[in-house]
Amino acid sequence: MMSKVKLHFLGAAGTVTGSKYLLETSQANIMIDCGMFQGLKELRLKNWEPFPFDVSKIGFVLLTHAHLDHTGYLPRLVKQGFKGEIIGTAPTLSITEIILMDSAKIHEEQAEKASLEGYSKHEHPLPFYTEEDAKATLKFFKQAPLDTWTKLNEEVSFRFQYNGHILGATFIELNVSGKIFVFSGDIGRNEDLLLDPPKKPVWADFLIMESTYGNKLHPETSVSNELTSIIKETIHSRGTLIIPSFAVERLQTLMFILWRLYEKNKIPNIPIYVDSPMGASVLDVFQQFPSWHKLSHEDFNTMKKRMNIVMSYKDTWNTIDNKQPKIVIAGSGMVTGGRVLTYLQQLIDQPETSVLLVGFQAEGTRGRQLLEGAHEIKLFGKYYPVKAKIYHDESLSAHADQKGILEWLKDIDNVPQKVFLVHGEPLALDALRVKLKDTYNWDPTIPKLSEIFELTI
User: Fold this and answer.
1) Count of structural domains within the chain
2) What is the DSSP letter of 57?
3) Average pLDDT for consecutive 10-residue bins of the chain (457 residues)?
4) Same domain, yes or no, for 46 and 153?
5) What are phi and psi for residue 92, nearest 5 degrees?
6) 106 and 155 housed in the same domain
7) Percent helix, strand and coil across the chain, each rounded to 5?
């Protein structure tokens, strides 16, 4: 007997950020990911809007991975009445806890700073959520294993499958009355330095597919060679190389590359500062879950000893005041917040400063502005001239490119009833739509934000 389900696209539809999908079935309402919007102001404002569904009727949230654009709305969901289960792999939940607590602290600090310095349009600027809100979210966390079908009820079961990308990341298979829904999450790369290649789905009646690099191939150039060149230039000019970085995976990968360059005598003994309390906490998660990555215990500890791990804000300023040539890796990856803003505020107007952007820079972010040649950048309510040299390297991206996406799909034995392309900007979405039509003769749909589809199962 056929029945209907509804699939709501509440985020990452027509854009890269804010991943949130709701599957409404006769027995349960299930969310896949619960991210916050980043980048363009019109998207960020959507974070503050009331949730467009009765939150108390959502029974489960399944997390593909821990990144903020997939988990950062969770405290708001709980505050609006969610009382179900938030389910992820053990590393995903560990990293999600770190990310939520860290972002809550940043939200509170930014609201306080905006209030004190008067650069907010609001008389009493509020944090998006507080540390108390984040803590309240943790009690709903529940671990689930890889490769095992877990029942949610008589009608629905799910399975997490290893997906590379970051520690703990998965794609999700949902079996709803015998029909398989595959939510790709963010797909990792086959040649990742720290992680194994992603597994591949073999059946998908309904496929919800990321498209971040749907129109691009990652460059063949070696980031090691580019880093070596930039570091030598930094030493020559007696400047600072600032690398804004995501605290999860990208930061650890950069540490690994820089350590390996030093071990191979490709770069001199230049001080390397890792200024990301969240990134330092994620290092502990790497130690906790060795089976999820390639780094040996010995290499991990040797690499960590080579770095100067900055924890306090006082030490951030000590690092800035240190005039010797140095490398600083600091959050966040798209320059939307975190400690990197303080470094840029103090150093972006100096021609001896270099900034290396690694990975995707979403529309509306400071990273995208720098990438596109902005002559000034707004930090803490003031504009600063950009005199630093700006470099960009996408070869470190944790996302599969178009070729990797096609490779990830090639083992699917059936023709899906429906393919939805999400988590991409318009050009990437359309390019992948055409490529999938040409390669597999599928006819993908590009949903709009807040669009709801009724599907027959």
Assistant:
1) 2
2) G
3) 91 97 96 94 94 97 97 97 98 97 88 74 81 98 98 96 97 97 97 95 98 93 87 96 91 94 94 91 94 94 94 93 96 89 97 93 92 96 96 89 98 97 97 98 98 96
4) yes
5) -60, -45
6) yes
7) 35, 20, 45
